[in-house]
Amino acid sequence: MRKEPIRGEQAVRDIISENYTGIISLFKRRKTTSAKDTGSTTEPSPGMRLYAYELIKLLGEGAYSRVWLGRNDKGDYVAIKVIKPISGEFLSQRELMILSEEVRRAFEVSYARLLSHSSSTFSHNVVKVLDINMRPVLRYLSGGRPYENAEEYRKDPPYLVMEYVSGGSIIDNRRIILASPKMFLCTVKQMVGAVKFVTEALRERVHGDVKPDNILVRAGGRFPVPVLTDFGTSINITWDGWLFGTPEYMPPEGLLYPASSAITSSYDTYSLGLTIYELLTGEIPSTQSLLIAVSRHPLLKSERRSPHITRLARSFDEPPGQLITAAEKVIYSEQLPQGDGIIHRLRALEDELNEGSLKQLRIHDLNVLEEAVSKARQPEETKDLVKELIRIGPTQRPALDVLLKYVDNILLSYGIKCENQE
Fold first, then answer.
1. Torsion region of 141: left, alpha or beta (phi above 0 gives left; psi -120 to 50 gives alpha)
2. Which residues pair with 243 in a beta bridge?
3. Whether CATH 3.40.630.30 fits 174-413
4. From CA 226, how far away is CA 122, in angstroms rounded?
5. What pTM was computed for the model?
6. CA 20 to 30 Å from 201, out of 108, 118, 253, 365?
7. pLDDT-derived band of residue 362, with 50, 70 and 90 as boundaries?
8. How far is CA 274 from the centre of its chain?
9. pLDDT (tens digit, 9 = 90+) per residue, 239-280?
10. CATH number of 6-163: 3.40.190.150, 3.30.450.30, 3.30.200.20, 3.20.20.140?
């Protein structure tokens, strides 16, 4: 077993050849013996060091990790994703599952990058993993306690080190991306290609957390280069049977129902559609706000629903309560559906948005989209593209390879060629 952090391309080959799947299986079988929090702070702080890295400032925080701006011994900036403690335990069973899934996906994507030799694979649109701290995990796998106390966790938490993508999110770069059809369409093509590359590297598993905050822009070039900075761990983590993720970008099958058989690759297609919609309009569709207001997902506490209900009230003459009641009758009539029943309910919801009591929502969202496309002077086909991506029924959304061909056809029809932007 290694005593140092796993590094570089050779480590990727090593971990694949050493059957990393077996390590994950061991995670699932063993009982954790992690230390409990005794009052000490468990959060790393600016200025402290994690092995060869100095922490500079907190960049962002998710449900199970924090991302720090750091600096290595050579003075290069890096992004450090630190797994957070859950329920006061350090490397508890859930943390081990999160970490093992994160590491496994990072290795698989890195290995796919090693095997790719063509810029057409979009590997340059996926963040590079530089280092992984496996020391506490190896202690656990050797039969010991990963940490004796909170202070040990604070000084040496489980973390991944990635390239620092400094250009902000794609939403931060809206003005530049929407400056011309070429800039916009080439950016969309690379975004789709990045998600496709990752899902193929993960053997067609769903990413599950595609959103603007996970698509940053690599600064310094003539063109914005979108970079997918997350490998989608959340899709394999559940809370009371519900999938983790970001509700604002979750498709209806994940947002409205517990972990269901309806989860397919079209999960990512919908999230991409919402991301492109927001890139064009500056907001998510009102339909998504309604789904959040109606959803029974445990992530959605009242304080998170309230802004979406308020938004519905401001956007429509009809009281939001009536919209919510109409949606609930379709989504949650009698009992929670399963299997094909979920697809049936989603089709019924689509019908309500097209012809029924919720039609005003769909009309409003399409009007906002059409106005944004016209204002940015983007091709008319863009509106149809986004409409297909955000269909409520998962079986009606295009697959990622079909989506790429659609974008290529638009580029071809307008005589636009995307340069190699690596």
1. alpha
2. 238
3. no
4. 10
5. 0.85
6. 253
7. very high
8. 12
9. 677 887 889 999 999 999 987 666 788 999 999 999 999 999
10. 3.30.200.20
